[in-house]
Specification:
Blueprint: H1 3-15, H2 25-33, H3 36-47, H4 50-63, H5 78-91, H6 96-121, H7 123-133, H8 137-146, H9 148-175, H10 179-204, H11 211-223, H12 228-247, H13 259-265
Length: 268
C-alpha cells in the first residue's frame, strides 16, 4: 500500500467517523460512508480491488448489522473495523474472512480511541460557553471548528499510519500463518456475521412466531434457485400484505355502560 492510498483511507475514515460535522453530519458520515459496506467499496476503489473490497465490506457489515449507538454510546467502533481491518486484509492478500477476524479486535481498539477523542473535546464546549457569556459570536464558531481538529488528527492519522505501516506486518502474518490458524479464521469469519444477524433478529422480532418467516426465507434460498433480489421482493410483498391485514382488523366496540355507571359520572 502506498502512502497516498493510506492517506486517502485515513481521510475517509475521518469523514465516516462519529461526531464528524462534515459530509451532512452523522447522516452522510457515520450512517453512510462510515458503514463497512460503503467502506469496503471505497477501500476497494482506492486499492484497485473493488470486488474483494465489496465482499469484505459485506462480511464485516453483517457482523455489526445489529449494532446500535443510543445516545452516542458505542459497544464497538465500526469505523476502525471497516477502514483499518478491510484495507489491511486486502493489502496483505487476505480475504473477507481475514477482514472479519481483524475487525473484531480493531473495533475494540477504536472504541478506546473514540472515548479518548471525546475526553479531549469536552474542553471545547466550555470554550464556547465562555465566548457566549461575553457575547463573542466568532468565539463560539471558533470553538465549534476547533473541536474537529483533535478528531481529524487522531482519527485520520491513526487509520493512515496503521494502514501504511501495518500492511507489511499483516502480510507477513498472513503468509506465515499455519494452515490450521488460517482455517480457524475462515470458520470464525463465517460464524461472526451470524452473531450480527442474531443481534438484529433479537431487536427486530416483536413476536417469537416471526422467526418462522426468516426460516422460510432461508429454506426458499436453499431449496430453490431464487435469487436474493427475488426473495427480497417476495418478502416485501408478504410484509405489505401482513401490515394491510393488521390495519384492516375490526375495531373492538367499547363495552356498554350500565345505568349505575352513568349516574356515577355525574355524582359530585
Amino acid at each position: 500500500m502506498t502512502f497516498f492510498q493510506a492517506l486517502l483511507i485515513g481521510l475517509f475514515a475521518y469523514l465516516g467517523s462519529k461526531r464528524t460535522p462534515w459530509f451532512f453530519g452523522v447522516t452522510g458520515g457515520w450512517n453512510m460512508i462510515g458503514r463497512p459496506l460503503m467502506a469496503g467499496l471505497i477501500v476497494g476503489i482506492i486499492l484497485g480491488d473493488v470486488q474483494n473490497g465489496v465482499i469484505a465490506g459485506a462480511m464485516v457489515q453483517a457482523l455489526f448489522i445489529g449494532q446500535i449507538t443510543p445516545g452516542g454510546a458505542m459497544p464497538a467502533d465500526v469505523n476502525w473495523a471497516a477502514y483499518v481491518g478491510i484495507p489491511l486484509a486486502l493489502a496483505a492478500g487476505g480475504t473477507g474472512e481475514q477482514a472479519v477476524a481483524l475487525s473484531v479486535p480493531l473495533s475494540m481498539l477504536g472504541l478506546g480511541l473514540f472515548n479518548f477523542i471525546m475526553t479531549i473535546n469536552a474542553y471545547f464546549p466550555h470554550m464556547g460557553d465562555k465566548a457566549a457569556a461575553k457575547g463573542d459570536g466568532a468565539g463560539i464558531h471558533r470553538a465549534t471548528y476547533l473541536a474537529a481538529v483533535p478528531s481529524f488528527i487522531l482519527r485520520a492519522g491513526s487509520a493512515m499510519l496503521l494502514c501504511y505501516l501495518g500492511t507489511p506486518v499483516a502480510e507477513m502474518l498472513i503468509n506465515n500463518m499455519p494452515a490450521g490458524m488460517l482455517h480457524f479464521f475462515e470458520v470464525a469469519g463465517k460464524m461472526l456475521p451470524a452473531i450480527g444477524f442474531a443481534m438484529l433478529l433479537k431487536q427486530s422480532l416483536s413476536k417469537q412466531w416471526m422467526l418462522v418467516l426468516f426460516l422460510l426465507g432461508w429454506v426458499m434460498i436453499g431449496a430453490t434457485s431464487m435469487s436474493v433480489t427475488a426473495l427480497a421482493i417476495f418478502a416485501t410483498a408478504v410484509a405489505i400484505v401482513f401490515v394491510m391485514a393488521q390495519g384492516s382488523a375490526p375495531a373492538v366496540a367499547p363495552a356498554p355502560q350500565s345505568a349505575d355507571e352513568e349516574d356515577d359520572c355525574y355524582e359530585e
